[in-house]
Amino acid sequence: MFGWGRLRPFFLLLTHLVSSSSSSGLDSGTRTLSTPSPGLLLPSKSSSLSSPALSSNGHDAHSSSSSSAPAETVAVVHSQPGTHTRSRQSKSHHHAPVDLLPDHALLQIFSHLPTNQLCRCARACRRWYNLAWDPRLWGAVRLTGELLHADRAIRVLTHRLCQDTPNVCLTLETVVASGCKRLTDRGLHVVAQCCPELRRLEVAGCYNVSNEAVFEEASLQLSPLHGQQISIHYLDMTDCFSLEDEGLRTIASHCPRLTHLYLRRCTRLTDEALRHLALHCPSIRELSLSDCRLVGDFGLREVARLEGCLRYLSVAHCTRITDVGVRYVARYCPRLRYLNARGCEGLTDHGLSHLARSCPRLKSLDVGKCPLVSDGGLEQLAMYCQGLRRVSLRACESVTGRGLKALAANCCELQLLNVQDCEVSPEALRFVRRHCRRCVIEHTNPAFY
What keywords is this UniProt entry annotated with (predicted)? Predict the structure, then answer.
């Protein structure tokens, strides 16, 4: 078996050859972007080729500086190269060392390529076409670019990957389309219809995804062909503004194996949605509800029902959360490692005391912009959570040097301390530096250096 270190020079040569072949005729009328992973870029309207979109890096690859309208850049999936193409390229690269590599070595190199370059390699010659579409390379699809026609890209890819197993992509377990603003319910419909083995779905920033897409995906994947449950473990729906309680209820009831769920800035969700989550998804380890401003203490009471599984919780800027909700989490989730409660202005030393006594394994805590947190809460943390490594107290105006000294004296493993915009003396910061030599101190005190 070839190691990646030994194959790295061949990989660089391979990338150069593919780029050269594109510039010598395969990509007529285009130029390659100066990015680490250039795709097969074509102007979407002016080009004579009209193949479906595959991937994009979101930049204009062909328009001149005088062009008034930003042009779209897309990549193309082509059919298998013909005999003429192969003979032409075999002559030009007859002595290329990469041609001497066995198939299994090329497959290992291809396994390190992103989705757009893998499709690009399929255009080089017939051998590379067959290798590039090897099912073992297609456990994941990653699409990027705000201008990418993500729906069409997903449709083209899934159609190609379903050729050997009609109607389903049995190898595809991960779909990442974060930032593809043109992804809509139609694209997710194709994923639901063709990817029964999907485990990870990331659609962060795809604000055109709605409740209807969630309902449709659940109904399709619950057909007799696919069983009675959706096997997704990781779901990122950050910035999916249209997601509402009913949509999350559908996700929860049909995805009982969820372990990682990110719902940042899903601003329409309320406490009621979290009740369904706790009922149907008992294995959740990481949950982010940052900027879900309709979530309050009742919602945290429902989250606390996840009990021993929960390790990571973010409720940053959920201004309805107070000590009451934090007390529920602290009481029922003793294995909590990470809590982000930045901007929860109702949190006080009383809530921190409950957290410290009930969650001694806490490693990371962010209570920045919590004006009612003071030295008393920090002293409780220092006493019971001595394994703390990262603490953010940014803009906690009630924190002074006394609380910092308690943390430094007891939490020797501290690696990061953020006290920006806090009224702490240089002497207290020097105390922290003496006792926690590996700690990075982020501060705004010009007297401390």
Answer: Leucine-rich repeat, Signal, Ubl conjugation pathway
What's the per-residue H, E or C state across 329-360? HHHHCCCCCEEECCCCCECCHHHHHHHHHHCC
Tokens at 205, concatenated: 């920033």
For the chain, the C-alpha Rg in angstroms (whole number) is 26
Query: What is d(CA 190, CA 206) in angstroms, rounded to the nearest whole number?
Result: 16
Q: Which of 415, 431, 424 is nearest to 447 (CA)?
A: 424
Residue 179 exposure: Cα atoms within 13 Å on the Cβ side: 10
Provide the pLDDT for residue 218: 55
What's the confidence (pLDDT) of residue 410? 96
Dist CA 164 CA 422 (whole Å): 62
Strand 42-43 with 73-74, pairing: antiparallel
Task: For residue range 75-121, list pLDDT tens digits in order.
Answer: 445 556 654 444 455 455 455 777 788 888 889 999 999 888 888 88
Contact present, 140 and 156 (Cβ < 8 Å): no
Q: Is residue 124 part of a domain?
A: yes
Helix then strand then coil, % of the chain, to nearest 5? 40, 10, 50
Distance CA 361, CA 352 (A): 14
Range of the domain at 17: 1-26+36-59+102-137
* 122 falls within a domain: yes
H or E element: which one contains 288?
strand 286-288
Residue 269 domain-assigned (yes or no):
no
Report pTM: 0.70
pLDDT exceeds 70 at position 439: yes
Residue 47 lies in a domain: yes
What is d(CA 278, CA 264) in angstroms, rounded to the nearest whole number? 18
Dist CA 368 CA 115 (whole Å): 39
The CB-side HSE value for 315 (13 A sphere, CA atoms) comes to: 32
